[in-house]
Amino acid sequence: MPETAPGHTRYATAIPPIRIRSIEAAPLFGESPKGGWSAEIKPEDSIHAIIAVHTDAGITGFGSAFTDGRLVQAGLKVLEPLYAGENALEPERVTEKLHQNTFWMGRGGTLTHAISGIDIALWDILGKATGMPVGRLLGGTYRRRVQPYCSLLMEEPARMGDVIAEYRDKGFRAFKIGWGPFGRALDARLDEAIVQSAREAAGHDNKLLVDAGASDAYWPHGLKWAMRTAEMLKDYNVGWFEEALKPDALDDFCHLRRVSPVPIAGGEVLTRRQAFIPWLSRGAFDIVQPDVTKVGGISEQRRIAWMAAEFGVKYIGHGWNTALGVAADLQMASAFPDVDLVEFIGGSPYVDGILVRPFELDDEGYLSIPERPGLGVEIDRDKIRKFVPDPSPLFL
User: Fold this and answer.
1) Domain boundary among 85, 102, 132
2) Which of 145, 171, 175 is nearest to 236 (CA)?
3) Which of 48, 230, 302, 369 sits most deeply, having the most CB atoms within 10 A of its CB?
């Protein structure tokens, strides 16, 4: 190779396109965690799916979608003519193509959830092809570790304290309790007793967050309940009140945020960046929580996070549902200056039991952000076969 001319810099040769060969989804069955919903899911139900994007270069990227995996499989068949043969090194362009060309089928829902998993997998491929972690590709490394909050279902008061204590003993120093009987038993004294038990078990030096889960079917309360409950939560130093109102009650959320003594969080039910505009511009949230596994993937998530920052709203991801969702949130946490928490569901095999190297807390209750290429995690094919009953090339 000839020497570089004086005064000129030699640059690396551009990476040639890596073409998408196929995409498949693996619904996860058998260990689906409880949701605390009024119509409870069962372990054998599918509410999460792993997505694998295979390329002609032999690089496979992995993502995750928070919906029934059988819907994701159907969505991939619809999307296949749009992604087949595309350059896997261009996640934002490719997934925007998928969004733009499926608008008549509805923005949000199955196709958007499927695109979310594809997008995460494409970022994983881009990182693996360039030898860089996704966080660095997103713009920088603001931190190398972040605190996870252990996300737990609410229980009756005596049991609630035991559950918090179990995960405190495992090293967690931040906790979110949600759903379960809270608000559903129509007993304000029970609601407070649950929170009091959780606070006592967590300790007054640790973080405690509360999620009403008002996106549940037939949520029985409105604005006045949320206002009274926010006042109660203040007495227990609760860090935020999440999903305090039905998910379409925009005006009520705006009012609640103005009067609440504790920060108001929400946004997990919204998909695509456009849906977040009225909620951010009108001041509905102190903390916005897009879910990377259903909002449209990392490409959408970071645009929402940027937009939130312009409105002075804190961004914290909601990709808690599988180890791939957590990995995506960790990479996002490295790339934004003020992210100090990520959600981490307590005791789910889909998080704890599918990686070659499971996530581990350090002595201060933090998670390291993987610095290996891509998402920085590796699926253990032997472990995950347990949750995928049908043989699949995903595991070859």
Assistant:
1) 132
2) 175
3) 48
